[in-house]
Amino acid sequence: MKKCPRCRLVNPGSALRCDCGYDFASQSIKASYLDTSRIDVLEQAGALDKLSAASLRAKLEKGDRYVVFQFCISIIFITFKRRSRPYLIRPQDRRFTAGLPYTLVSLVCGWWGVPWGPIWTISTVVNNCRGGVDVTYEVLSGMVRGSR
To answer: Whole-model pTM?
Structure first.
């Protein structure tokens, strides 16, 4: 596992570049791999003006990401595994801290279901401790669909 010194995201050991654009080999900032063509679609559809599109593109290239966290609640034989709303996480923000409330809810309320409670509680805690689930592409796709 490689931890990005810029945005503190934990990346797989085989990663060449972080989502924020940090290149592990050269230890410098390069262009992000994020596809910003969806922002162009929003701009062309009239959903974003030029200033908003440029601002959104700059934020995403800087390393801002939309992230969701999971939580698990159990009631004897019924277990619910749900996702939070998307949070905008900036490079200087700690994803672990943002997901902590959802992790605590899972640890307190998730264990009690049979058989899925313990299984889903462990998976939600692991996902949240890894920084949640990056849904930046899904949020941008939703913005594109909503503008048509």
So the answer is: 0.69
